[in-house]
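Hello,

Following up on my earlier ticket. Below are the two sequence lines again, exactly as submitted.
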Amino acid sequence: MTELNLKVQFPEVFQLQLEVGAGQRIESAKLIHGFSYRPLERIIASGEKDVHETVYIVERICGLCSHSHTTAFCQAVENAFGLTPPPPAAVLRSVTAELERASDHLLNLAEVSHLLGLEDVFKSVFGLRREIGRVVKGLLGRTVHFGLNRIGGVNLVPSPELREQAATSLDRLALSARELVEAYSGPVRPELTGLGIVKDDPDRVRSTGPHVRALGRPRDIRADSPYAAYGFLCFKPVTARGGDAWARTEVRLGEVVQSLGLAGRLLESFPEGEALDRPERAELQTDESVSLVEAPRGEDRHVVGLTPEGLVRKLSVTVPTFRLIPLLEQALVGHDPDHVNLITASFDLCLACRDSM
Amino acid sequence: MKAKVFNIGSCNGCDIEVWAWAWGGGHQLVDDPEEADLYLVTGSLTAKNAERLEEMAPRCRPKPVVLIGACAASQRLFRPAEADLDGFEFLTKAGRRVVFGCPPSPEEIAAGTGQLPATGDQTLD
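Thanks for your patience. The regenerated structure is below:
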């Protein structure tokens, strides 16, 4: 029996300890993380930070899905104070969430093609991601940590010209994304089929996200309990069958196309109005509130406790990667150690989220 | 250029922009610190990562270092770092540069890494 230490994905973020048995098969896997442990929950819940300050810190939980975290946090605080973001704010939150989802999935798709040594595919995936980054920068001025969300609404609303420009670019990008699906599936599908199957009963995997939709279950918080502007949209969550690495990749490919389409549609029918809900006086209606958001990797849950003065006394964040780690450890068993990198990549872990709590 | 990234406690935001810089500008990100032309540092140092840096130190040579982003530059964003980055000789000896931003854009990273000498034996600044 040998033990292997592997480092994959971003350097130094986590280690995988594998026990490899006879016939080069993995017998057990253990993921070791916590290297970047930044106790943000403790820093925030010191009882000294007010809700507006906290939005800024919550955004820094993760660089990949920062908008999902601020949306979840702002929604929880808005619930507690009985605020409703006006329609332009709700729509802009959804647009940004969809663009974030598309960029995030493309980063994973790029990583998988890079691991397979498909440089041409990698270049086109990364090219598309860069184009989306340009659209986001045009709309919001930033590509990472947008600084968009604010309690009660959003900080800025792009001008009609910028929105129109973005909608036109998104139409074009949705077309290139559709072409990419073809170009990507051909070489990648045979390499990933049958790898890293999630063995749990799909109905017992209690979460949402691409890994659940890859088991053929259309579970998605955007559709099941709509928030922001998702209630106005009619869409069906992308699903795939088999629960293997290819099924997860297939869901991501489908969601890139879908997300670009949804963002474009929302921008075309952008409502008029204020960016912020500004009541004369907001009073705390409940001192603890919960909010769920469909982050690119699945359910992101924020539980926020507030004092009557509007200071944060409690924050509990459950990030999607929390639920992914045991599934990965299980899915690695029985595979050749050569496939570890690919299987791990197909789960798209985000240890920055996981380690910040 | 070959760069080795030391993610010593970042939120991945700077790492994404480093990826974008590397892939967009034809640079290579390597695992082996000896192979690299320069070291990039993201995040503020955590206790656990300090242990790993120490393990890695014998394989590291003094090379130009670029601190990427507000965390790496200040070593405190929301609280002081858990360990001292200046204790690692290979990260101080050949001079350091700082690229500010949260996170800095790939263009800013390119500007900050642009004119570094190929060997790490000279002192910058």
